[in-house]
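worker-03 picked up job from queue 'complexes'. Input manifest follows; two sequence lines, order preserved.
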Amino acid sequence: MKLIDRYIYAVTEHLPIDTREDVSKELRANIEDMLPESPNEHDIRAVLEKLGSPTKLAEDFAPTKRYLIGPSLYASYFSVLKLVIGIVVIVLASITLIDKLLNPSDSINYIKMSVEIITDMIVAVIQGATQAFLWVTITFIILERTGVNAENLPFQETWSIDNLPTLPIPKKKMISRVETAVSMFFAILFISLFYFEPQLIGWYEKGKDGLRLIESFFVVERLHFYMPIIILLAIFQFGIFIYKFISRRWSRPLAIVNTINNIAISILICIMASDSSLFNNGFVSRFSNLLDSSISQLKPIWNRSIWVFVIVFVSICIWDSISGFIKCNAHD
Amino acid sequence: MNNIDELMNSLIIELRRGTLVLSVLSQLSEPEYGYSLVQKLENKNSLIEAGTLYPLLRRLEKQQLLVSNWDTTESRPRKFYVLSAQGKEVYTRLKGEWYSVSKQLEKLLMEDDNYEID
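worker-03 finished. Artifact:
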C-alpha cells in the first residue's frame, strides 16, 4: 500500500489544491479496481507501471499551463530582457557615478574613494538588474497567461483575410525598435533618478572643487509619498514598451492602452504640480536671488512656470494619444 | 528500420489520439467509472491506456461533456461519469463528422489501391 500512496502523492503534489483531493481519491479507487483481491507487491508494481510515469500523468491532470513563458514568446523575452538590463546597467552606473562625483566623501584618499565609487556602482547595477529581470519576466508571464504572442495580438477579432497584417508593415504604422529602445532608456533614466537619487535634480553652483549641489528641486520626503503610484505607472508604461517592442506596429488596443496611460500620467502630474509642499522653497529662493527679486514677487511667476510646464506636458500626452490612433488607422 | 518503427509508433499515437474522445463518449450513455470503462473498451478491442483515460475523463467533465457522481454505496467509493445533455449533442455531431471523414478517407485510399493495381 505504501507504494500506492507514494505514487498518488507523486502525481498530485503539484496539482492545484482544490482538485488534489478529488484526483487522489479517484486515482486510488481506480488503482484498487485494477488490482486483484489481496494483491501482493508484484501486482501493485505491475499496475503502477501500467499507469506510467507520475510526472506525465500529473501533466495530463493539470488544468493549466505548466510553464511560465512558452516558445512563442521566448525569443522576444530574451531580446527584451537583454535590452532592458543593458539600459538599466548603463543608467544606474552613470547615475551612481555622477552622484558620487558631485557629492564626494570627505576622504582625500583617492584609492579609497575609487573603491567606494566602484562598490556603489556594482551594488546599484546588481539591484537594478535584479529589478529589471523581475519586472520584464512578470510582464512576459502576464502576456503568456493572457494569450498574447507575436502572431496573436490581444483583443483581436476572429481571423479574417482582411485582418492579415499588410506587408511590408505600413511605415506610418510601424513602431521602430530603436525608438522604443530610446524611450525605454529615458524612462529608465527618469525613474531611476526619481527612485534612487531624487535629490540630484536641483540647483548646482560651481564651487572651488567643481559643481556642488546647493538645493534639491523636490522635497524628497514628500516625493516618497508619490513613489508607489509613480512606480505603478512606470510598470504599466513598461508593459506598453515591451508590447510595442514585440508587436512593432500600432493597433487600436495599443492606442487605447497608450491613451489610458497618458491620462493617468497627466492626472498624476497635475496633482503633483498643485502640491506646493512637494517643491523645495530653498530652490525657489535661489531663483529669486538670481533674479534679484523677493520671494513674494517670484512666487506667482514660479507657479505660472510650473503650470506652463504642466500644460506643455499634458499637450504632449494628448498629442501622443491622438497620434497613436492616427497611426493605427494609417495605410500607406 | 528501427527509425521507421519509431516514426510509425508516433504516427499511430497521433492517429489514435483524435479518435480517443469519440471512443470514450460512445461508451458513456450509461454511467461508468474509470476502470470499468477501461475494461469495456478493452473488451471491444479498443485499447486505451488507463493513464491516458483517467485525465481525459476529468478534462471532458471540465468541458461539461460529462457529469460525474461519487457512488459511496459500495464498499469502495467510485466516481461515475455519464454523458451530459451537452455531451450527447457533441457526441452525435462528432459521430456524424467521423462518418464523413472516414468515408472521404476511404475514397482516397481506395483510389490509391486501384491505382496500384492498374
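worker-03 released lock.
Strands of chain A lie at 202-207, 210-216.
Residues 2-61 of chain A form one domain.
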